[in-house]
Predict the 3D structure of the following.
Amino acid sequence: MNDSVSVNQNMLLTALSGELPETRLSSYRKHQGGIARLQLDALSQITEVSSELTLDETDYLSIVEGIMMMSENSGIIHYENNHMYLYLRVILKPTDEPVIVIQEVISTLQSLLNFLKRIGLVLLLALILIFFASLSITQHALAPIKKAWKKQVDFTSDASHELRTPLFIIQTNLECATDNPTETIQENEQWFNNIKIETSRMTKLVNDLLTLSRTDSNEQAIKKVDFNLGEVFGNTIAMIKPYAEKTNITLYASIQPDMIMNGDEELIKRLAVILLDNAIKYTPSYGKIFICADQNVRNIVIKISDTGIGIGKEHIDKIFDRFYQVDGIRSSNLQGSGLGLSLAKWIVTEHNGSIVVESEVGNGSKFVITLPVVR
Ligand code: ADP
């Protein structure tokens, strides 16, 4: 404090040279505020101001008035209660016009307050930054949870929607069958047949839903054993053949015998049924289906192609999504729920394989499954 109330070298140099100092002398640095140089005329009127201070004209006039009344040429002047200025008053030769240099004195308390203000500002900025950073991290972390939640909600609503149709058909057919209690079962055969079809459709749907929900919660246990994939496909083709013959579809199969792979036999059977069932479902009468399966050193490659209705390019990416059905399929008589291929994809992925489809509307489809031979 003692240092700061004495005129310093900076003030002297400012008075003489007219240049405001670029740097503060180290010993005064803490208490030194801005400097102002005021050039006066012989009548003590301000003629020129060069200043680093944020004062206006009336402030300078009041300060100069105060300094001109001081008996000492240097000292300290108080202005408006909370401001202190060191001042130096000199008469410069040869004009004999006075020059006043003032320098704000920053008290320890003031500099502490300034420091706190700056720290406060930095803290505020840091808090704002932390707020936005944590907001973005939280959103980032919540994204997969939101996605899983949406998937679950969609799954439940799609499943209920799919179950509503067979239930509705069963209910209306039952009403028709029980409307005339005097009629025999044979006379109502048509209604009972419809109920049978819808019940088996519902059973398949519920089974698929169960498997998918188990896969979601990782409850679907996979029992991997060595088995003959050629045999699995051969049996499935034999089982499904009568179904194809109903619509005069011919199946051509070329299956390499003794293709041993390590995997879940039941799931691979299910994969074969899904793909063959689709090929028959989406191939019109008198169409053809080709099944080819052979093994190279690393993989077993299964190709199932048909001469069916084909799939439009815009649907190719989506057919493996749950409940996705190409427009028109849902409203047609073809029984399906849009779950088959999503299950097929899951089965293939679980066996570290891949499934791709090539298709053209009106020209048929070709599904290629590659399964690694793991021993
Ligand atoms: P869906 O139970 O409806 O058959 P999938 O998941 O098995 O459900 O198939 C999804 C959609 O992909 C089907 O609705 C159908 O539009 C299309 N699709 C699947 N396989 C074939 C195929 N071989 N030929 C033409 N379209 C097919």
Observations:
- The first helix runs from residue 9 to 17.
- The mean pLDDT is 88.
- Residues 278-279, 282, 306, 308-311, 319, 324-326, 329, 336-342, 365 surround adenosine-5'-diphosphate (CB under 6 Å).
